[in-house]
Amino acid sequence: MIPDELEPLWNEGDAAFAGAPALFRGGSFEDIRDAFAAGNVVVHQEDGRPVGFATIVFTIGDHVGIGNLVVLKEFRGRGIASKLMEEAHELAREKGAKHSLMCIWDGGTLPDFYQKAGYQPIGVVMSREL
Known about the structure:
The protein is α+β, with helices and mostly antiparallel strands. Helices cover about 35% and strands about 25% of the residues. A four-stranded mixed beta sheet has the order 1-2-3-4. A hairpin with a 2-residue loop joins strand 2 (about 50-60) and strand 3.
């Protein structure tokens, strides 16, 4: 699989975060290409077609940030996002991580999903324009 096949998923995910600060959008599609080249992307396929993916977006010590969790709308509700999270966690463990962080945009994502996956709030991200 080449990263270009992930672009339709990226576009759908990016549209879902319209208006969100860049921190919550996971960068650009070029960042996805870089993550793919570094082996930091997990992909779920149905009949050879990529329908979901997640990335490791940063590593700090033994912490990784999991981001860009995207599943095409017509494939949601099938447990694909949960499988992708588990695969991303396994990839992070293989890379030596002991902790995973997730930044959740209050205006658009599903905090309950992430809490069911074992994530707990540990602080508050604050922002201001410069």
